[in-house]
Amino acid sequence: AGGIAHDFNNILSAIIGFGEMIEMFDVKGNPSLATRLEHILKGAYRAKNLVDQILTFSRHSDQEKKPLKLSPIFKEALYLLRASIPATIKIKEAIDCPSDVTMANPTQMHQILMNLCTNAAQAMEPKGGTLTVSLCQRDLDAEDATMDAGLRPGAYIQLSIADTGMGIEEGEIERIFEPFYTTKKPGEGTGMGLAVAHGIVNDHHGVVKVESRLGEGTTFHVLFPRLDMEPEPPHAKPVLPMLKGTGEILFVDDEESLVAYSKEILEYLGYGVEAQTSSKDALDLFLADPDRFNLVITDQTMPDMTGFDLAGRIHKVRPDMPIVLCTGFSSPGTEEMTAAHGIRLFIKKPLGPRRLAEIVNQILSSPENKEDANGRRIDH
Predict the structure, then answer these.
(1) CB count in 10 Å sphere of residue 273
(2) Less CB within 10 Å around the terminal CB: N or C of the chain?
(3) Cα–Cα distance for residue pair 187/133, rounded to 1 Å
């Protein structure tokens, strides 16, 4: 999971980086381009959160939950789903539920619907059919709760996903939530989609029920505890202009596309940038003129020499040099190790241009980086 996260976050860094740059510099006066780019970036941010979910799933740690309206999450997921399933499959939706607030993680709710709907769509290939997605309130009394194993009497929200596929044999229904169990042909499924969805539902104190008839189709009912409250409206963060500055930066990462966008945005903001895809070449460049640079930004996982090793070699010559460590995946203890190596800041990828500009300005304008009489920055 860590290896996948590292590589995928590097890919996302380039997508988000160049995407945000297009958003900042190229979409003015072109609303259709702005709309398309918004969807691209929204998908990239979802993918970023999905990587975190994969790591959470592998570590068995909790994800933040908050009071959440489910209708907007599911509508957005269905919008994305339409583009990824065959045109032979018709989608019917009825998800305007008046009271649909539960304690949940938004990315995991999005993931449940995508996984269950993708599974339903695959069950209807190649002939096609109808995918029906509905959301409604359910109030269970003691008798209902007895019938719905694992539930207590009370208020619930029910998500139902129905397909008109071939159905599931009775003996297989008991196994469909097992990791890596699949009835699909090789190459058509991993057997993880339903297992992940089931795990998320359990973590949210809900249950999944399956109804299926051979030759007629399958329906998944997912029930979540309902909250009688409205979530707080999201507070839009003001988009602040990126602050320009001065200083010489050594930027090191083995991903060429990430280096390209980082160099471009930092030079646009007024900084001098030496960008290297080799940690060894970066060290040679630094050693040739140790007083030239005001800041080093480096990736952690690189061939030949890691970011920690590079930081150690640099600090032997310039103990005062502020260093920012970026990583697509951090194993337990990484943040503690950064402090032990004297690294100023530890940042998780993907890193967009606005965040990058904010970090650089924060460090180079910090009182900790005042210059001495010789013009050399001192790290107090």
Answers:
(1) 20
(2) C
(3) 26
Alpha carbon distance 94, 135 (integer Å): 6
83 within 8 A of 118, measured Cβ to Cβ = no
DSSP 226: P
Is the distance from CB of 276 to CB of 299 less than 8 angstroms? no
Residue 343 CB partners (closer than 8 Å, separation 6+): 308, 311, 323, 324, 325
What's the whole-model pTM score?
0.57
Looking at the DSSP bridge assignments, the partners of residue 32 are none
Question: Rounded distance, CA 180 to CA 80, Å?
Answer: 25
Report the 3 state secondary structure along 142-209. HHHHHHCCCCCCEEEEEEEEEECCCCCCHHHHCCCCCCCCCCCCCCCCCCCHHHHHHHHHHHCCCEEE
Write the CB contacts of 50 (distance below 8 Å, at least 6 apart in sequence): 107, 111
pLDDT for res 56: 62
* Interacting residues of 231 by C-beta distance below 8 A, sequence separation 6+: 66, 67, 68, 69, 101
Cα–Cα separations (whole angstroms), residue 58 to 49, 55, 110:
14, 5, 19
In degrees rounded to 5, what are phi and psi of residue 175? -110, -10
Token pair in block for residue 72: 């907007």
